Amino acid sequence: MGEPTWPGGPRGASTADNRASRAQSPVGRDAECALLVGLLQSLSDRGAALLVLGDPGIGKSTLLDYVAGCARHRILRARGVESEAVLPYTVLADLLLPLRPYFAELPSIQRRALETCFALVEADEPNPYAVCAATLGVLAAAGEAHPLVLLVDDLHWADPSSRRALQFVARRLATERVALVLAARPAPDDDVTWEGVPRLTLAPLDEGDCLRLLTRDGVDPAEPASTRLVRLSMGNPLVLVEYAKALVAAKESGDEVSETAWETPGPLVERAWWSRLRTLSPETRTALLYVAACHTPELGVLAQALAAEGMPLTALDEAEEAGLIHVRGAAYELRHPVLRALVFRRSSVAQRLHVYRTLADLSAGELRTWYLASATVGTDEKVAEALADAAARSRRRGALGAAAHAWRRAAELSPSAGARAQRLLNAARDAFYSGASRDAVDWCEQALRWSRDARLTADIELLRGQACGWLGEPARAHRALVAAAEAVEPVDRARACALYATATLPATMDGRMRAAVDTGARSAALADLIEKEAGGAPGVLPSRHLANVMHGCAQALAGGVQEGRRLLLAGRAGLHGDWPLEEQQFGVQIGQALSWVDERDAAMSVLDAVIDRARREGVPALLPYALIGRCEVTSWSRWQVARAAGTESLHWALELGHRAMAGYAQLLMARLDGLRGDRAGCEDRIADYERHCGHDLRGLELFAQAALGSAALTAGDPETARAHLVRALSIADEIGLDNPNLMPFLSELAEAHVRAGDPAAAAALADRLDQWARTTALVWPAAAHAHCRIMLAESADQVDAWLRTAEHLHARAEMVFERARTKLTSGTLLRRFRRPAAARGLLLDAQLAFAGLGAGTWQARAATELAAAGHRAVEARPTVPPIDRLTAQELQVALAIGDGLSNGEAAAALFVSRKTVEAHLTRVYRKLGVRSRSELAGYLVRADMVR
Which pTM value belongs to this model? Predict the structure, then answer.
């Protein structure tokens, strides 16, 4: 992504500049330093996050030190430590515990979650996202009191729970007086995990900067060795500095330096440190191994450990004098993280195991367990059980990432194949629910190699299939789920039923509707058998409920609308009052699918219930799915609500790593952008979709083509529109999608045919819509058929007749855009058939409807036709309704406040800070011209935003 910028505000600029002048600017990093100073200067008014990426030794820590030297605000620092990555919330605790007085300002659910994760109180398992929201709340409250600078180094070694919380916060600091600067090594998934966070990648220094750095460190750049050092360092400043120190030391001692003296094998940065490490005495090397192995090398702990070896703490003096360690607080710290790996590599396995056993003898609790695990070679069930207990404790604290890693290490130590498989499944499950779907898939595959039990294998395959679906690999998910169902069916029909049902959704994402119907039918058949064998009443068993929902979804997509409606309504009736998480998952599927079968009110009722529950309990896992369902339903008539829902769905899908759902959200938003006249915005979204999803999601490809076609038609390019829309319909036929409600672009395709001079193609499409209307009894294809007949009408009487039919159908279902287009077409033709008086009312209705939707291009077209029909007092230029001036997040805040939530309640519901809500609400009032909550609520009702 492009280099971020922050404006330097007038307040505090001189102070920051003065501090910057006193802080030593790293050589070759002038642009980076200016960027960071700008961030600090703007902190009095706004916050920001910056992720600094670079290879080891490239200067990330030096830049953080520079920020600390420039900042005039309170600074909190933390760093990830490789040996502590298994301990949950360690980095987050370093940042937040100094701010504990601000915990009292949090909502009770968030405060309890934060205190539980830090083991300050005992409570049930906290929701990880309640911890994330609480972290944001504490930082926002502290920043409100005094601007705050957070510096986190070596983020790649932070524990997963802390890393997730910091990722969450980094996207939400714009309105807070908090600066968050994070330093990490680059990772392949940075574009996904840090989506929306400014990033700064440090490049190697050029030759001139390298020579200046050598000069600063006492090496003459004209010396022949300088050129060699620059070449060997490859622009890495740490390597260059260490080589320079070694060169200076050699010259001071009178040693000759050969041409090849520096070219020791191994990683670049480690070579630079080895010259110091190899000069240490054996005793000091042993003592240094304890520093490297210690999770927290406190001086007291190290003194005890070294005493067990018969050594004093002064054995480390030599390492300190060599610049390999230094004292920070009451603990020793390696001068650079790569030293840990280097110290380990230069010691024997026996030495490392002995050190870990000694540290275990001196420790207690979870720390002792991890030391014992590190000291174990092969398998050990006792240690494995202890790690499993640690994993369970981490899970209770909501630290699912740490729990996953504990389960995985417990599996590695398990002597029993069955126990190993079960613990790997536990690791995969916690990884999956923490958002690490790729780890979940990998660990499921490891578990499958050890599982000898058909039922356990089925459970592993179920989780692997779900994770593959989230990762956007539907073909792989469907194959694995069906194969697992077939394998377990002879011994456990309930598990087979669940596997077949779960396989239905990835089949639809893969564009295989017939396969989806088949797996749904197999699930339903097994549910029948299970019900019969159990002697239970129909519809009450979990297997029956699941089968109804998934088979109903497949039927609705493949054209079996009546049967799909029956099954989905049965599933809706089976939802119980408390709606536990499993039923909320069913609810999302039911709600989305009910909109496909003309049950939109029921769909919204279910989806709203899931969304409200997720917001109230701080559990966003289902929000991407429920919000995309809301976006689908409201896209027919309430585009502002649809855009707000789609934007939030996309945000959460990216945050949670749901690749397929992020892609679908982009496509729905692209269609809305195109129809509103933003063709470039539509094309940008399609490009984002293709970059993230490629062509793996065959079931979504038709929506990409449809969005591009709709944008082209809106822009007045019928030939391009026709090409895209014909392709979209062709894909629908290829994949077996046979529900016209999922293809609202068909009436646009008919118009593109007519405007391109091919009425015969439009007539053929009208016939097909008529056939769909008869076989499905859906309202939209019948209304679209009437619209097509209006386009093809040869007289005013034909227009009137088909318009009456269309109006009757539109009275049965709210479809504002489709109705407005029908009136625009009718008014245009009536004017041409010399019926201007009849045309004017239709065109005026269309213009107003388009204006309300924010469809500016369509509004302008209606205004032009209206003027041609003799209605002179018409503003042909598109007008933007005030509600359309709100950003997606401003609209979300407005809707929350309009629903009667307080600022604090709205902040908790939207997973932002109270200050963010207040800032957005101020802008909402200004843009809408309202002055109070009651005026806002009334405005939203009149704008049809809330009902």
Answer: 0.82
Contact 340, 334 (CB under 8 A): yes
Query: How many residues are recorded in the chain?
Result: 947
The 8 Å CB, 24+ separation contacts for 523-528 are: 523/497, 523/498, 523/547, 523/550, 523/551, 524/548, 524/551, 526/489, 526/493, 526/494, 526/496, 526/497, 526/500, 527/497
Calpha distance 605→598 (Å, rounded): 14
Residue 181's DSSP bridge partners are 50, 151
Helix (H) and strand (E) counts for the chain? 47, 7
Q: What is the DSSP string of 294-315?
A: -SS-BHHHHHHHHHHTT--GGG
Q: Which tokens in the block code for residue 117?
A: 């994760």
Would you say residue 260 has pLDDT above 50?
no
Sole residue written with tokens 């240690």: 383
pLDDT digits (tens, 9 = 90+) for 539-548: 456 778 888 8
Cα 586 to Cα 217, 501, 559, 633: the distances in Å are 66, 11, 21, 17
Is beta strand 331-334 parallel, antiparallel or unpaired with respect to 325-328?
Answer: antiparallel
Token code pair at residue 462: 């179920």
Which tokens hold the place of 458?
């089925």
Identity (one letter) of the amino acid at 771? Q
| 3-state class (DSSP) for residue 812 | coil
Consecutive H or E run containing 890 = helix 888-898
Tokens of 549: 């929902």
Token pair 């934060």 is found at: 114
Backbone φ and ψ of 691, nearest 5°: -65, -40
Separation of alpha carbons 637 and 773, rounded Å: 21
Return the structure tokens found at 87: 């301990």
Alpha-carbon gap, residue 676 to 690, rounded angstroms: 22
Return d(Cα 165, Cα 151) in angstroms, integer: 14
Q: Which two tokens stand for residue 868?
A: 């041609």
Q: Give whole-number Cα distances, 539 to 524, 546, 548, 549, 553, in Å.
A: 11, 10, 8, 11, 17
Q: CA-to-CA distance for 354 and 359, rounded, in angstroms?
A: 9
How does pLDDT run across 283-322, given as a tens digit for each residue? 999 999 999 999 888 888 899 999 999 999 999 999 998 8
What is the rounded distance in angstroms from the CA atom of residue 705 to the CA atom of residue 699?
A: 12
Q: How many CB atoms lie within 10 A of CB 330?
A: 11
C-beta of residue 170 within 8 angstroms of C-beta of residue 52: no
Which tokens is 704 given?
């990409």
Q: Any alpha helices (H) in 833-887, and if so which ranges?
A: 836-853, 856-868
Please give the C-alpha separations between residue 753 and each of 178, 570, 758, 908, in angstroms, as whole numbers.
Answer: 55, 41, 5, 49
Q: Between these two residues, 594 and 655, which has the higher pLDDT value?
A: 594
Cα dihedral across residues 474, 479, 485, 488: positive or negative: negative
Q: How far, in Å, CA of 18 to CA of 52, rounded? A: 24
Phi-psi region of 726 (alpha: psi -120 to 50; beta: other; left: phi over 0): alpha
Q: How would you label 372-395 residue by residue, b for 16+ Cβ within 10 Å and e otherwise?
A: bbbbbeeebeebbbbbbebbebbb
Query: Which string of DSSP letters, residue by residue, matches 524-573?
Result: HHHHHHHHHHHTPPTT-SHHHHHHHHHHHHHHHHHT-HHHHHHHHHHHHH
Q: 583: number of CA atoms within 13 Å, CB side?
A: 16
Sheet containing 48-53: give its strands across.
74-79, 148-153, 178-184, 48-53, 199-201
pLDDT of residue 796 exceeding 60, the answer is: yes
Cα–Cα distance measured from residue 196 to residue 778, given in angstroms and rounded to the nearest whole number? 40
Question: Which tokens sit at 334?
Answer: 């390696």
pLDDT tens digits, one per residue of 521-569 = 999 999 989 888 877 555 456 778 888 899 999 999 999 999 999 999 9
**8 Å CB contact between 383 and 357:** no
Reported in sequence order, the residue ranges of 375-414 that DSSP labels E, i.e. its strands, are: none
